[in-house]
Design goal:
single chain; eleven-stranded antiparallel sheet; 158 residues
Length: 158
C-alpha cells in the first residue's frame, strides 16, 4: 500500500464565501461525530476546488440528496481517500487527474460541500482524519480567517 499522505494546499471553496462551518469532530448525533469540514456558503454558484493532487477514483450520487460525492486518491494503492461531498455541475470524470485548485463543480444541496480525509488501516478499517493534519500552512491560515477551531478531535469513524 502507498502510505504517502495527501498535501492539501487549496481550500475547497473560497473561504470568504463561507457563512457557516461544521467542524471536524462536532456532534452530529449521539452516535456520530462529523468526519469532515463542512462549508456552508453564501450562494449556489460557489466553485468546489480540488485541495490536492490526485485522480478521480469514483463519483457517486448521494442517497439522501440530489448531488454527488467525488472520491480522489493520490495513487491506485493509496491508503488515503479524499471525499468531497455535496457537489453539483461536475467538471470532472472518473479517472481524470486533478491538481490543487482544479474546479470539481459547484456546491451542492443547501449551498454546502464537505472535505473528508479517510485512511484505510489494518483489517480495512477506515478512519477520518482532521484535514489540518495534511494542510500546508497557507491552507490552515486561510481556514483560520473564518474560525480558529476546525478540529475538535484527531480521528472519527466515518
Amino acid at each position: 500500500p502507498d502510505e504517502t499522505p495527501p498535501v492539501l494546499s487549496v481550500t475547497p471553496v473560497d473561504i470568504s464565501s463561507v457563512t457557516t462551518a461544521i467542524v471536524f469532530g462536532a456532534d452530529l448525533s449521539a452516535v456520530q461525530k462529523n468526519p469532515a469540514f463542512e462549508y456552508i456558503v453564501n450562494n449556489s454558484t460557489v466553485k468546489v476546488r480540488s485541495a490536492c493532487k490526485g485522480y478521480i477514483e469514483d463519483i457517486r450520487l448521494n442517497d439522501n440528496f440530489p448531488d454527488y460525492e467525488v472520491w480522489i486518491k493520490m495513487s491506485s494503492n493509496s491508503v488515503y481517500r479524499i471525499i468531497y461531498d455535496h457537489v453539483l455541475n461536475l467538471n470532472i470524470s472518473k479517472n481524470d487527474e486533478v491538481n490543487p485548485g482544479d474546479i470539481l463543480g459547484i456546491v451542492g444541496t443547501g449551498n454546502r460541500t464537505e472535505l473528508q480525509i479517510n485512511k484505510t488501516g489494518n483489517n480495512n478499517e477506515e478512519l477520518s482524519y482532521c484535514p489540518f493534519d495534511f494542510g500546508t500552512s497557507e491552507f490552515i491560515q486561510q481556514h483560520k480567517t473564518f474560525t480558529e477551531n476546525w478540529c475538535l478531535t484527531e480521528t472519527v469513524k466515518p
